[in-house]
Amino acid sequence: MAFVTPSSALDKYDVIVVGSGAAGGQAAYTLTMAGARVLMLEAGRNYDPQAETPMFQTNDQAPLRGAGTPDKPFGFYDATVGGGWSVPGEPYTNASDESERQFQWWRSRMLGGRTNHWARHSLRNGPYDFKPRSRDGLGFDWPISYEDVAPYYDKVEMLIGVYGNNNGLENTPDSPEGCLLPPPKARIGELLAKQRGRSLGIPVIPIHRAVLSAPLDHERIPAKLHPGNLKAQRILAGDMRNRAACFWATSCGRGCAIRANYQSTTVHIPPAMATGNLDVLVDAMVREVTVDSSGKATGVTYIDKVRKQEHHASARVIVLAASACETARLLLNSKSNHFPNGLANSSGLVGKYIMDTVGAGWGGQIPLLENLPSYNEDGAGGLHVYAPWWLYKQQLAGKLGFARGYHVEFGTGKGMPGANAPYVSDAGGRTVFGAKMKEEARRYYGSHIWFSGRGEMIPNEDSYCEIDPKVVDTWGIPVLRFNWKWSDHETRQAAHMQRTFADWITAMGGTNAKQPDASGKKAISQGGYVIHEVGGTIMGSAPGSSVTNRWSQTWDVPNVFVADGAVFASNADKNPTLTIMALAWRAADRILEEMSRGNL
Amino acid sequence: MNTPEPVRIDRRAAIKWMMAAGAGAALLGPRSLLGAPGTAPAHGYGTDPATTKPYSPGDIWPLVLSGAQRREVAALSDVILPAEGGAPSASSVGVTDFIDEWASAPYPDNVEDGRVITAGLAWLEAESVRRHGAVFADLGDAQRLGLCEEMSKDAPEGSAHEAISKFFRLFRNLVCTGYYSTPVGMKDLGYVGNVPLARFEGPPPELVAKLGLADEVRW
To answer: How far B52 CA sits from the closest chain A CA (Å)?
Structure first.
């Protein structure tokens, strides 16, 4: 079993997994390691990070010095294939013309999906994050608690490799001994931010990121993850030996040829393939989930993009892991006599309660960091430290004017020069040039800091996706139309972010060239911009108020599961990928149990 | 983009044209990717370019600046980042090709910048001829410097000088981008990364101590 074509695929599988990213990768890994036969369908092309990653290329070897373009919005060397904000031939629409009511949808079209492009921030949701309504009366509680998910966080951390440490901070869970790899040392600007943040009451601690700061313990971990399954242990141990530790060079956004960071293509898919139980079909765009006369799912209809032909694949169980909005689209487009409003949509909630992360940024120049002697601070190709939310008590007491928290990511240092030049003051009413330009470049390079707030959005009735009644994509599949609205909780949070960052820059000895946005309406990023969209098939405790049950299993069609972020009932400030993987593993375990009991 | 022969344009016409070019680019928006009517559409590198192979300006879209314009770009780049100490000048490390690539690219922002650049170059040629009787590239150092000093002054919004000032700021930024992203520029700046390391040691202890951060390194 391996990469297959429509004609070489089996007639029937145990499980079809739609999507190959964090959710699809994890679901396929768990299922195939336990012996289930899985067909994975990916709408994009095959992608091999070991052969295709530009590891040491410098920006002068790239078109436009690597600058972002509409083809490659995050720069030429970003791993994303397929366009990101705009996928050729596959549009989406927005119901409103107003930019603040619009949602931007980031997609990729490649094996591994969006795990090839992400920050690798791997933060656990805390106990509050699963029961937000119980805490402040807003949004929804999940039908599960932190204790239900914690064992899966442990397992995912051990499998993918996450650096970080434990700090015992409120709603910022510690990991059990043996889960985390050592955190890298902080860079000089990160140390200064840590020291000066203290005067503002802001804690700065090592971030958790899915990068191997040391080799994985291939002798201990496989037995912990797959007790009693010697074949799985052997495969995983072998695969862990083939993942190199980080060599502290090149940005993770390019992907990783030495497999030192997590992408589903570097971590999940290789061992799943090695079981012999995984077939992967790339360039396969799923149109709909099919059902039989009893309303049970039978498989999926998909389009072979290369040969432009429609095919059907069959399985006992269907796992949707296409990314939150694509999964909602697929369900809404799966209309039948049994399900005239789309599959698993008896609640009418498919597509509802889409949430992104609140984003606001603020930057400054820090004189203390000028003219510092150079040292190699590439580090782990991303952040080493961050600030978790620190005002839980004030917030609960109603002192902040917004109900949910945010964490702070910040970047400093002498990164590889590219389209971000120059490094200059331009003070005194002049554009600096000549010898003075060179002098200023040496002086100011590496003296800037950029803060990004990443905050929780509360689900609301005005943020949802639906099928556009008029527009279809190049494959003839009806596309999504988005509706979006930030509430005052989010805009006030964005204002608080900018105010805090401006104060932080002052505390670091810098000056703020302008005043932060007091309303937050200008500060807040557009919906979708942070690429953390979740919700759309939220999980809950009753069929009338949710789309899936506590096992990510749709209430209406028991052999259809949702493994991706669509099941999130809230969107904590913590980056969602680790939780997506933990829930996908949990859902896959449930599928295995139910299959063995004969219920699926 | 076809540019009228620079020396034939007088200063007032050049400014007027530059203003119109700026406004036109804003109106065109993303549609300008399709190219202007009657011109062959230029294509970008698409959403799936091979990223591991090295590229040179001109590999993907044709470079459109004329020989005269490229001479002017080189001369202006070298006033902005001249040879100094052991470090070579901007034009000697490929900055002219980079600016040509940038101004020739089919992406909306580049189309807009390309108009600002060609209009700015046209103004500079005309002004060089008017004042000194020769194109910019043939002027002496003092004459070049004098023109750059003038262009470098910030201008109030809506003033006649605004477009020139904006052109010069954009051009300076592009020269720096082009220069500091080369091995020579990275060395000049003090970038020492992009090499594999066995361990990440963090900042040197003496640097940590100098900034008073010795207490911060423990978690």
So the answer is: 5
